[in-house]
Structure formats: C-alpha cells, structure tokens
Amino acid sequence: MAVLDVPGARLHHTVTGSGPVLLCIPGGAADSTMFAPIAGLLAEHYTVITYDPRGISRSTLDDPDGEQRIEAHTDDALRLLDSASTEPAVIFASSGGCMQAFDLVTRHPGRVKTLLAHEPPLTTLLPGQPDGDPDELQRLHREHGIEAAMAKFMADAGFETDPGVLPPEMRKNMEFFVVHLMKMIGGFTPDYEALKASETRIVVGVGKDSAGQPAHEAAVLAAARLGVEPTYFPGGHGGFAAEAAAFAPQLLAVLDA
Predict the structure, then answer these.
(1) Average pLDDT of the segment spanning 1-7
(2) CA 110, CA 106: separation in Å to the nearest integer?
(3) Which of 2, 62, 65, 257 falls 20 to 30 Å from 251 in CA-CA distance?
C-alpha cells in the first residue's frame, strides 16, 4: 500500500505485477478491495494499480465537505497512471468509476490505449431514470439513516441485497456516496462523439446475470451510442469480484484482442 499526495487529497493505492499498466477504477462507495479477487490474476500480465478514490476508505480529503467534481477524480486517475508509467495505459472501470474513465479518455487523448467500462450507470439514457433520485436518497439519509437510503438505492438499482446494518467503514463510504458522489456521477454525460473519434479502444462490458437492471440496460444503450457491441461477462454488476475465476480470463482475452 502506498500513498500519493494529490491536490486536496491523499490516495491510498497498491501496485502489483509487471508489464503494461492497468488501472482499476471502482465505482460508487467501493474501494480498492473490490478488485482484490481479480488483481492477482491480472498482475500475471499487467502492472495493476488499484486505489481508494478520494473520500473513500483510506483516501482522505483536506475538505471532506467540499464539492466533488468529476474533473478532480479524473485528475487523480491520471496522476496514478503517471506515477507508474507515461506509456498509454489500460483502464478497467466499474459502474460510476466509468465516468472519470470516459472523461480521462476525452480530455487526455492518447493516454489510454484500451478502456473497458463495465456497466456504466448512464441512466439518463433510460426513460424515467429508475435508479434513484439523489435528493430523495439524501432526505432518507437525513430522516431515517444511511441504511434506509441505501435500501432504496439498491432496490431502485435492481439489487436484491438488503444492506442491513453497515459496518463503520462501509457506513462512512455509503454516506459519502449519497451526500457527495451520487449527483456528480448522475450529472455526468460523456462526450460520445469525442469518445467515438478518439484513438482509445472502448469496450463496454455488461453482466450476463444483470439483464433488466438499470445499469445493465443503460450500458447496452451507451454501447450503441459509442458504435460498439456490448461485451458480456460472467456474473452481474460486480461479476469481476463474485465470479473472478471466470471473469479474469475473459477480461484478459478482451484486453489482448
């Protein structure tokens, strides 16, 4: 575990393996541990960087109550890449982490060789935007606690898991997500034309088991906007963690294609 000082934050991250750089960007309230099941497998072929995004888990902020902006998160990802190599890199982004990955590709042409965006929740492409209203979730958080807010979020997102009583670290991350990150992620619209015109190879991944969930359906529509076919992976929205043994070989095959 290492720490990278960046403007306004300190990013806790790990670097394992050797070869071309592969940066894993988690989404929502998740941290680097999300990628633990596949990191070792990927590190047999790549220099794998995993990290806690600013404000999440061990990555602390100078101003925890300050506004969160996609550009700052994008710059964090770029600095992590630059700390390992200046060669064009590979990015594997999950869920809301796809937003800064799209932004990085657009704002830093040539920096990313391949981007695999797994189920980007671009739900503005869907009628009714069914994955939850940030203002409603913040109200639930204020009046009934983070468990109530997350129960609604997960139900709207099509996840059957009941969050139950959250451990302290996860509670802190979920609160930061609801209060500071949801609007940032939901308010971001990729520049589809710029992404299509970029030199970066973009792969949009979807879970074989998540059909019907908003993030899955939005990802399929986003792939169409980008002029690519969605690539189906084992498992659901978090298949890379839950189905790592099956997911990692397919991910490596896609990246090597």
Answers:
(1) 96
(2) 9
(3) 2
